[in-house]
Amino acid sequence: MIHGNEIHKMANVLGLEEVHGGYTMLMFSARIASGLPLRSIERVHKIVAPRYREFSTLIITKQTLGRRRKKREPLSRTESERLARIARVWSMAKDVYKDEDLARAFLSRPHQMLQGRVPLEVATETEYGADAVVEILGRLKYGSAA
Fold it and tell me: Which residue intervals define the domain Antitoxin Xre/MbcA/ParS-like toxin-binding in the entry (predicted)?
């Protein structure tokens, strides 16, 4: 379950405008559903995975990104959900590690509990993938085997 403070952190990572009283879960959901601005990709890339050269391809194809830029269109709902999942796992990783470099290292290295796959990539595929990454982070945070 995502709580208000976590939504605030995710909104900040995504570069969303401040909302008086903060985002509720329903408001955040509506914002994602309406499509995030393209600038959110660059912001998340810079914060979460600055060394990941093809970061945007986790979210959107190069061709589609180019068309969206030309037309000044936002991300689709599906693309926005992918990017929000990255913001979610980043917020959790940062909370667990208390250090951005360590959080980045966790998200960018293959993990045994993900069948040797990279957490950042698993998290973008589906909500269940993001849940698997968050579960590992929860185990780390609360002292279980991970």
Answer: 93-143
Cα–Cα distance between 114 and 133 in angstroms, integer? Answer: 8
Q: Which domain holds residue 93?
A: 4-142
Structural tokens at position 94: 């940062």
- Nearest Cα neighbor of 2 from 34, 32, 26 is 26
For the chain, the domain total comes to: 1
Q: Indicate the SS3 state at residue 111.
A: strand
Burial of 104 (0-12, 13-18, 19+ CB in 10 A): buried
What tokens appear for 142 in the block?
Answer: 């609360």
- Taking only the tens of pLDDT, the chain with its 146 residues reads 566 588 989 999 999 998 888 888 999 999 999 999 999 999 999 999 999 989 999 999 999 999 999 999 999 999 999 999 999 999 999 999 999 999 999 999 999 999 999 999 999 999 999 999 999 999 998 877 65
Angle at 104 between CA 103 and CA 110, to 5 degrees: 100
Q: What is the maximum alpha-carbon separation in the chain? A: 48
**Sequence letter at residue 111:** H
Amino acid occupying residue 137: L
